[in-house]
Structures are given as structure tokens and as C-alpha cells.
Design a protein that fits this description.
This protein is α+β, with helices and mostly antiparallel strands and 705 residues long. The protein contains 13 helices and 40 strands. Strands 5, 6, 7, 8, 10, 11, 13, 14, 18 and 19 form a 10-stranded antiparallel beta sheet that branches. α6 (325-335) packs parallel to α7 and α12 packs parallel to α13.
């Protein structure tokens, strides 16, 4: 028999802890506050534990689970409820649920609500209170059961699984499949588990999928969402054996991520943090933005200079990895006094003549050929132009032309051999020698020259793991924890430094790293027409105020093309690069107008809600139709952004939220264009009359009081 153990209401979310009186397992049910649910007996379902764990030596789950899932192992099913306690202060409420194993080990499930928030944080702790070493093969960060509690039976034809796929230069593609398409409906006999386990193995946590999952009950318009905060291998699961669906996630387990962890008597282990939310209405985009709101507090606590979302100039697409004092001075003569706050010296400042930048990183000696009078003179020139100087590092990786490439004692190994990919090896970030070396080369450079901004790049992945611990996956986890610790050391050593998260563009856009950074490179699609699609996608997974979007301007670009590129940056943080020393006055006029427009909408980018419209993209490289974005702030201001890919209509329209009237206060495009508001049945639409293909336009809107 399953009964209510406890119930808590956190904002518009309700958390129910359900206790199985026979097994003493506890299930966590998360629902929108105020909604009525079915009686337990109206569905064929067993209680599904809120902690999923597997110890080596314990019985594996049956029902053909081997190789597909480690959920509901005997380690998990033998966890029995012990106690629950609540801790509350002026900022948050935390619910701790303790479970006991049959061998004396304990596990703690922690659910945290930050007051006023639209999300929850969740993690688990496993404690070895026994007398022998315990080897963990799996430990979840979260597990939610009972989906969906609003429809009797198996809720067929009403449950959708939404994931976000990611590959290089095409990050963030939304994938939506029915439960039946994924073969996650229960069998006729209730036998044989169904599991869709997915994730990523390696040190690029967004290289395949984002650590993000949404389940939609489209019959009741309810959405459950989860994100994992982890910078290494992770997994999510949609699991089913009966009428109830469960979702869980956390560290990639032994089967999926080669992970095992030994705990001696008295030792404990904490899982990564998960972000959870539930809502009625708002769609996939609504629940996604509830989860991204969890990062607001971290970014608000960041550098003061970041709070106005200042504009970046990065010289990479100007010099292509060959910056010098001479070409930077030429760029500064053109870009100073145009509204830029940061000037970033990208990769190549350390390279030797005739050797490409991407195989020289690791030694980080300033190039005497590129900076014959020293880097300090160049930094001073940037400061004289009233900009903060930034510099690029690929802290963790070493190129094959660097001396450190052969310093194998301090590099990661797998199976006793140096872990090597094409052109790169990896520092062992756990090694005290490496920390000391990077403290000198990285932090020392920042302090020596007075850099106030650092772009942290990362251009290959470790893969399944490395030596140095009880498993390859645990070696990887420890190494990536050490990487985070070094980033924290940078922040302590250079107070107020602005950090940019980059990994071949957007391969590290997960919440944990984003909580440490001011912003991130959204992609490497620097000059592609699909930039606005990728940039809009990322509103579902990171805060727009942290999404650095590049407008790379070429001397041959038409005014239409320049306006298209500049308008892309209105979807996040503006960054300019390209042939800026070769542009004419008309071309600069379009850029300058875009900079002024961006500055007027920066507060809406910083805090707002995004609504998506237009044609659902098929091929990203061959876009058809159009894309529209409306982003609305809480103070009655908004902006609308149109990108036209192919001309299929004369006019495209987007509804504006609320019942009040809106008016256009400013606009941006090239040449003559027409944007207007239509009123119909007390509802407003923003409309754009299409002129040509591959064009863009934006407007600022204010709601009449």
C-alpha cells in the first residue's frame, strides 16, 4: 500500500513524498500546485525510489535490464525510509530524506527550494556506515516517479519526451518524440523494463545531447523538466515497467560512463546537482526557461562590470589566430569609441613563426615575433582605447608542437599510456605540479599584464576517462573537478575577472560551468546563416545574458548581410569581429546603429521571457521560411526580431502577449523596411513585410498602460 508521507508546496510546485508501506521505498512525485491527481489504485504502478543506486556485488535488475539500465537494482529496492527533516532560513527550504540499506549504509536525498524560485535543486549523498569497502556503480542526482498522475492507465498517446541534441556548430536542436515512438509503453504482461538512457561520455558535456530532459503530458498540459549540473560524463533516463513513467539522471554509471567509486567505512559521496521544475502550461519553452532561471543568482553575483551586458570585440575572425601588436593597434584605431567594453586577444599570441596556433598551446610564452616590444605595450594600447583587455587560454590541453606535450609525467594517461588525440594531449589537473605550472603561466600572465577578461577554450574531449582512480569514469570526474577548482583559483587571484566559457564553441554549455562564468561562446558557426536558429535554440538551455553571439563582418558584405549578422547578436551578448579595418562608412553605419539598438534592449536580454515563432527548421545548412522571436521583460517592454530565410509569404506575424496595446518605439534593419502592429479581437500582432530572402529586422516595443 502506498500512502502520503509528506507534502510540501514550493511556490507553484507541489512535492509529494509517497511511502510504500511494504517495501518502505519512498517515491517523489512533483506536480503543479493545486492540481488534483488520481488515486494510486487507478494505475498499475509500483513505488519507484527517489534514490537510484547500485553497489557492486548486489543483484542487478531483471526484466532484460542488463546493459540498458541499472535502475531499480536490489541496492535501490532494499532502501528503507528512515527519517525526514526540514531546514529553513530566510532564503531557502531544504528537505532531507534519509534511507537505510540492509547493510547499514545510508543514503540522503536533498531537495532545495530557493524562495520565490520556479525550480528546485536536488542531489543525493551515499554514506558507507558499514564495516567493509563499498563500490558504487551508479548513483542518481534525482529521480521522479508517477508520471503522469493525471490520467488513468498507461496514458497512451499523451506523453512526449523532449531532448536537446548538440553537435559542433549546430548546438541545441530540440527533439520531440512520443513515448510510443521510443518504445516506452509497458508490455502486455508488465514484464521487461523499458529504458531510454542517453547522455554523453567525456569532458565535453554538450557533445551529443545537452544534460536536459522534459516530459510533456499533452492531455493535461503539464511539463516536467530536469537539468544536470556536471562538467563530465552524465546520463538521463526515461524508465518504465508499468503505467507510471519515471525519469532520473546524474553521473554516467558503470555501464554508460565506465564509472565506479570505492567508499571506505565512514566515507561518503555526493552526486552532482540537478535542477528540476514542473508547470502547467507554458509549453516546452516555458519549462525550459524556468530551469535556466536557476542560474540568475549566480550571474547576478558575478562581476559588476557585467551587469549591463557590455559589448565584446574579439579579433579572432580578423587575424585568424595570428594577433600581433601591429594589427591590434590598427583594429583599435577603428573600433575605439564605438561602444565596445572588452577587447579580446584570442588564440595565437604565444605561437612561434610558421607553426599554427592550434598545436602550440601549453607553453604560453609570449611570441617575440608578434609582440616584439612585449605584450604589456599592447595591453596598454587596449586600455588607452577605454576597453578592458582580454586574453585566450586553453588551460587543460596541450598542442603537439609545445614542449609540454612531451612532459608526459604530468599528462593524463589511459591504460598506462599517454592519452593522445589528434594534435592534443591533456594536463592531469589533479597533479600539484600542473596546478603550480598553470598558476604561473595563466594566473601569472593575467596579473602581470593586467588582463581583466579571460576566454577559456577547450578543443577536444578526454572521452570515457583516464587513469588515476578506481575507474576511468571516476578518474575523469576527479580531473574535471580539479579543472573547476583551478577556475575558482583564477577568480580568487584576479578579483572581478570576466570569464568566457568556450569549447570549440558550445560544447560546455552545461549549468555547472555556466554558474562559474560570465558568458559563453554560443557556437563556432561564426559566419553561417544558421546563427539565429542556433542562438534562439540556446534560450532553452542557458540564459541569453550569458550567450555570446558573434557578428563577423566581411568587407564584401552588403548592408543587408551586415544587418542580418548584427541582428543575430540581439539574441544574446553582442560580439563583433571580422574585416573591421576595411569597412566603409555605410557599412559601419549599419554596425553602429546595431550597437545603439543592442544597448537599448540589453535590459530585456538580461531579464525576460522568450516566445518562439516561425518555421520549424529542417536542414540548418539550407534554411527555409522564417524565424521570429519576441522577448518580453517584466516592466512592459519587449523586442521582436525577424529573420527571413526564404520568401514564402509577403507578411509574417507574431502575436504579442497580454491584452494591452503595444507601440513601436525603435527599429533596426537596413534601407527602407516596414514593421507594423495589427490589432484584432483585443489582441496585438507584430508584423513584418518581407522584402527579400536572408534579411532581418528588429523593433523595440512598449505596452501602453
Amino acid at each position: 500500500m502506498v500512502t502520503m508521507l509528506k507534502k510540501y508546496t514550493f511556490g507553484d510546485m507541489e512535492c509529494r513524498y509517497l511511502l510504500d508501506s511494504e517495501s518502505r521505498n519512498v517515491e517523489l512525485l512533483l506536480i503543479p500546485a493545486g492540481m488534483e491527481i488520481l488515486d494510486w489504485e487507478q494505475k498499475k504502478q509500483a513505488a519507484d525510489s527517489l534514490i537510484q543506486v547500485k553497489k557492486a556485488g548486489d543483484v542487478y535488475p531483471g526484466g532484460y535490464a542488463g546493459g540498458n539500465t541499472m535502475r531499480q537494482s536490489v541496492t535501490t529496492t532494499q532502501l528503507a525510509y528512515d527519517e525526514q527533516c526540514v531546514e529553513e532560513n530566510e532564503r531557502q527550504i531544504a528537505v532531507h530524506t534519509w534511507m537505510k540499506g540492509s547493510d547499514g549504509c545510508r543514503a540522503r536525498h536533498c531537495l532545495v527550494w530557493h524562495k520565490g524560485g520556479r525550480y528546485l535543486e536536488c542531489y543525493t549523498e551515499f554514506v558507507n556506515d558499514g564495516t567493509e569497502t563499498v563500490s558504487l556503480e551508479m548513483l542518481s542526482s534525482f529521480s521522479l516517479g508517477g508520471i503522469t498522475p493525471f490520467t488513468a492507465g498507461d496514458a497512451h498517446d499523451s506523453l512526449m519526451v523532449h531532448r536537446i541534441r548538440s553537435v559542433w556548430s549546430m548546438e541545441g536542436r530540440l527533439e520531440s518524440r512520443t513515448m510510443e515512438e521510443l518504445q516506452l509503453e509497458p508490455s502486455w504482461a508488465g514484464h521487461a523494463v523499458r529504458s531510454e538512457r542517453f547522455g554523453q561520455a567525456g569532458s565535453m558535456p554538450v557533445n551529443h545531447y545537452f544534460p536536459w530532459l522534459v516530459i510533456e503530458d499533452n492531455r493535461n498540459d503539464v511539463f516536467w523538466g530536469a537539468q544536470i549540473m556536471h562538467n563530465a560524463s552524465w546520463q538521463m533516463e526515461v524508465y518504465r515497467k508499468d503505467d507510471g513513467v519515471s525519469i532520473s539522471g546524474g553521473l554516467a554509471d558503470r555501464e554508460f560512463g565506465h564509472w565506479m567509486k570505492n567508499l571506505e567505512p565512514g566515507e561518503f559521496f555526493l552526486s552532482p546537482m540537478a535542477i528540476l521544475s514542473v508547470a502547467r502550461g507554458g509549453g516546452v519553452d516555458g519549462i525550459a526557461q524556468r530551469m535556466t532561471s536557476a542560474l540568475e543568482a549566480y550571474v547576478d553575483a558575478g562581476p559588476e562590470c557585467e551587469q549591463g551586458l557590455p559589448i565584446v570585440f574579439n579579433e579572432y575572425c580578423t587575424t585568424w589566430g595570428c594577433p600581433s601588436h601591429e594589427n591590434i593597434r590598427s583594429i583599435l584605431d577603428v573600433v575605439k569609441d564605438r561602444g565596445f567594453s572588452y577587447f579580446v586577444i584570442d588564440c595565437g599570441w604565444y605561437k612561434k613563426e610558421g607553426i599554427p596556433w592550434d598545436i602550440m598551446m601549453g607553453d604560453y610564452d609570449v611570441s617575440k615575433e608578434l609582440f616584439p616590444e612585449g605584450l604589456d605595450k599592447t595591453v596598454q594600447a587596449i586600455k588607452d582605447a577605454n576597453m578592458k583587455a582580454g586574453i585566450w587560454f586553453e588551460i587543460e590541453n596541450v598542442g603537439e608542437a609545445a614542449k609540454q606535450y612531451h612532459n608526459t609525467a604530468h599528462l593524463l594517461k589511459r591504460d598506462g599510456r599517454v592519452l593522445t588525440t589528434t594534435m592534443r594531449r591533456f594536463f592531469d589537473m589533479r597533479d600539484p605540479w600542473v596546478e603550480e605550472y598553470l598558476t604561473d603561466k595563466v594566473i601569472g600572465t593575467l596579473l602581470r599584464y593586467g588582463f581583466e577578461y579571460m576566454k577559456i577554450d577547450y578543443n577536444d574531449t578526454i572521452g570515457i576517462g583516464c587513469d588515476g582512480s578506481e575507474s576511468l569514469g571516476e578518474g575523469l570526474r576527479q580531473n574535471m573537478c580539479a579543472s573547476l577548482a583551478f577556475i575558482e583559483k583564477v577568480k580568487r587571484s584576479v578579483p572581478g575577472i570576466v570569464l568566457e566559457n568556450c569549447a570549440s564553441g558550445g560544447h560546455r554549455l552545461e549549468p555547472l560551468l555556466m554558474s562559474k562564468m560570465s558568458m559563453a561562446s554560443f557556437s563556432d558557426a561564426h559566419e553561417c546563416e544558421e546563427i539565429p536558429v542556433i542562438a534562439a535554440n540556446l534560450h532553452r538551455v542557458i540564459l541569453p545574458r550569458q550567450s555570446q553571439i558573434w557578428a563577423v563582418i566581411r568587407k564584401e558584405d552588403s548592408l543587408k548581410r551586415i544587418a542580418y549578422s548584427v541582428a543575430n547578436t540581439f539574441l544574446g551578448r553582442m560580439c563583433i569581429s571580422g574585416d573591421v579595418t576595411m569597412l566603409d562608412d555605410k557599412q559601419w553605419g549599419i554596425i553602429d546603429a546595431g550597437i545603439a539598438f543592442y544597448q537599448k534592449i540589453a535590459d530585456i536580454i538580461k531579464r525576460g521571457t522568450t516566445f518562439f515563432y516561425g518555421t520549424r527548421p529542417g536542414s540548418y545548412r539550407n534554411l527555409k521560411g522564417w524565424q521570429g522571436i519576441v522577448r518580453v521583460s517584466e516592466n512592459g517592454r519587449a523586442y521582436a526580431l525577424f529573420h527571413i530565410f526564404t520568401r514564402q509569404d509577403d507578411v509574417v506575424r507574431m502575436p504579442l502577449p497580454g491584452q494591452g496595446k503595444w507601440r513601436i518605439t525603435d527599429s533596426y534593419s537596413y534601407g527602407e523596411y516596414e514593421v507594423f502592429i495589427e490589432e484584432k479581437d483585443k489582441e496585438s500582432q507584430i508584423c513584418y513585410r518581407i522584402r527579400e530572402e536572408k534579411e532581418a529586422a528588429a523593433v523595440i516595443l512598449e505596452q501602453e498602460r
